[in-house]
C-alpha cells in the first residue's frame, strides 16, 4: 500500500498533495505521462508556480499507483468523473474514494457520490468540499473544509488522516448536502460575476447572492440534504468565497459573460456545466430556480445579462 493518492494533477489536486505530503506518504497521479514527467522534473505546476513540490511528494502517471493506494482523493472535474471511474474501476474497487470535484453530472444529473456508487458499487464514496482556493492550500494558509462520509467511524478516521495543522476538516454524514452545496454555489458565483461585469452594481450582486442561496437550499432539501449543511462551510461558506473574489474561476467567468468577453482558454469552469444540469434537475423535480435558469441561458448564449436581470426583476412580487 502507498498511503494517500491524489488523482488529478490540476491546481486543486496538486495543492492537496502538497498540503498533505508533509507528514504522510502522498502520491500525485495524472493520466498525461509526458506532463507528469515534466512535473516530476521541474517540481513545479504551471498553475501553482509560486509553490514548489515537496521532495517527498511522488509524482506519477503509472496506473499501478491507484491500485496500491489506501485512500484516493479524486481531484477530477465532475464531468470527467464517470470516464475516470470506468477506466480504473478494478483498481479503485473496495477503497474509500473522496470526491473533490464540485458539480452535477450533465448526463445523469447525479452528484459525485451517486456517480461513484453506480460505477464502483464496492467503493466507499466521500466528499471533500468547502471554501478554498488551491493557491491558499498549497501555500499553507489556514483553510477549513467539510468531509462528508456516511459511516461516522470511517469519517472520523479519515478526518484525522486528512487534517493538518492548517487544513482543518469538519465532519458530516450528509453527503448530498455537502456535494450540492459545493456544486450549486458555482452557479450563483457565475450569476454574481455576470451582474458585476454587466455593470449592475454591488447591491444587485448582494440580492443575487441571497436569492441564489435560497435556490441552493430549496433544491438541496428536495434532494434529501440537511439544511444545516447548506448553512455551513460546504454551502454558505463556499458561496461567500466563490461569489465575492476574482480568485474564483466561476466568478471570473461570470465577469467575462457580463462584459461580453471570451473567457480564459483551457480553463475548466465547473459551474457552467452545473448550471445546465441543475436547471434540468429543477425542471425534472418541479422546483422554481430562476437564478439557475438565467445562468443556464447565459451559458448557452440564449440571453444576455441585461435580459437576464430584467427577467428576474419582472417576476411577480412575493414574500421572502
From TrEMBL:
Active site: 185
Known catalytic reactions: sn-glycerol 3-phosphate + NAD(+) = dihydroxyacetone phosphate + NADH + H(+); sn-glycerol 3-phosphate + NADP(+) = dihydroxyacetone phosphate + NADPH + H(+)
Record flagged with keyword Oxidoreductase: yes
Tagged with keyword Lipid metabolism: yes
Gene Ontology CC: cytosol
Stretches assigned to the Glycerol-3-phosphate dehydrogenase NAD-dependent C-terminal domain: 174-309
Listed pathway(s): Membrane lipid metabolism; glycerophospholipid metabolism
Any one Gene Ontology molecular-function term assigned to this protein's record: glycerol-3-phosphate dehydrogenase (NAD+) activity
Keywords: Cytoplasm, Lipid biosynthesis, Lipid metabolism, NAD, NADP, Nucleotide-binding, Oxidoreductase, Phospholipid biosynthesis, Phospholipid metabolism
Lineage: superkingdom: Bacteria
Binding site for NAD(+): 8-13, 134, 249
Binding site for substrate: 102, 249-250
SUPFAM superfamilies for the chain: 6-phosphogluconate dehydrogenase C-terminal domain-like, NAD(P)-binding Rossmann-fold domains
NCBIfam families noted in UniProt: PRK00094.1-2 (NF000940), PRK00094.1-4 (NF000942)
Annotated protein name in UniProt: Glycerol-3-phosphate dehydrogenase [NAD(P)+]
Organism for this UniProt entry: Rubellimicrobium mesophilum DSM 19309
Amino acid at each position: 500500500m502507498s498511503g494517500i493518492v491524489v488523482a488529478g494533477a490540476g491546481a486543486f489536486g496538486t495543492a492537496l498533495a502538497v498540503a498533505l505530503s508533509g507528514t504522510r506518504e502522498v502520491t500525485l497521479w495524472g493520466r498525461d505521462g509526458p506532463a507528469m514527467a515534466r512535473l516530476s522534473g521541474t517540481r513545479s505546476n504551471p498553475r501553482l508556480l509560486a509553490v514548489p513540490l515537496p521532495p517527498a511528494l511522488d509524482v506519477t502517471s503509472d496506473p499501478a499507483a491507484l491500485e496500491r493506494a489506501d485512500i484516493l482523493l479524486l481531484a477530477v472535474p465532475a464531468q470527467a468523473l464517470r470516464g475516470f471511474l470506468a477506466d480504473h474501476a478494478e483498481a479503485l474497487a473496495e477503497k474509500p474514494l473522496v470526491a473533490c470535484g464540485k458539480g452535477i453530472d450533465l448526463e445523469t444529473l447525479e452528484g459525485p457520490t451517486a456517480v461513484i456508487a453506480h460505477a464502483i458499487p464496492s467503493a466507499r464514496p466521500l466528499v471533500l468540499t468547502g471554501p478554498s482556493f488551491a493557491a491558499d492550500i498549497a501555500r499553507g494558509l489556514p483553510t477549513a473544509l467539510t468531509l462528508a462520509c456516511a459511516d461516522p467511524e470511517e469519517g472520523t478516521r479519515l478526518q484525522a488522516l486528512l487534517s493538518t495543522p492548517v487544513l482543518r476538516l469538519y465532519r458530516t454524514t450528509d453527503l448530498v448536502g455537502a456535494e450540492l452545496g459545493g456544486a450549486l454555489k458555482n452557479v450563483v458565483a457565475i450569476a454574481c460575476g455576470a451582474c458585476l461585469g454587466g455593470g449592475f452594481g454591488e447591491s444587485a450582486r448582494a440580492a443575487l447572492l441571497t436569492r441564489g442561496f435560497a435556490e441552493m437550499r430549496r433544491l438541496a432539501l428536495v434532494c434529501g440534504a440537511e439544511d444545516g449543511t447548506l448553512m455551513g462551510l460546504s454551502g454558505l461558506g463556499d458561496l461567500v468565497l466563490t461569489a465575492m473574489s476574482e480568485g474564483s474561476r466561476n466568478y471570473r467567468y461570470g465577469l467575462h459573460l457580463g462584459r461580453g468577453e471570451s473567457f480564459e482558454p483551457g480553463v475548466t469552469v465547473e459551474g457552467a456545466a452545473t448550471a445546465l444540469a441543475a436547471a434540468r434537475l429543477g425542471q425534472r423535480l418541479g422546483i422554481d430556480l430562476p437564478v439557475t435558469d438565467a445562468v443556464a441561458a447565459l451559458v448557452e448564449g440564449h440571453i444576455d445579462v441585461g435580459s437576464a436581470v430584467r427577467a428576474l426583476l419582472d417576476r411577480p412580487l412575493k414574500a421572502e
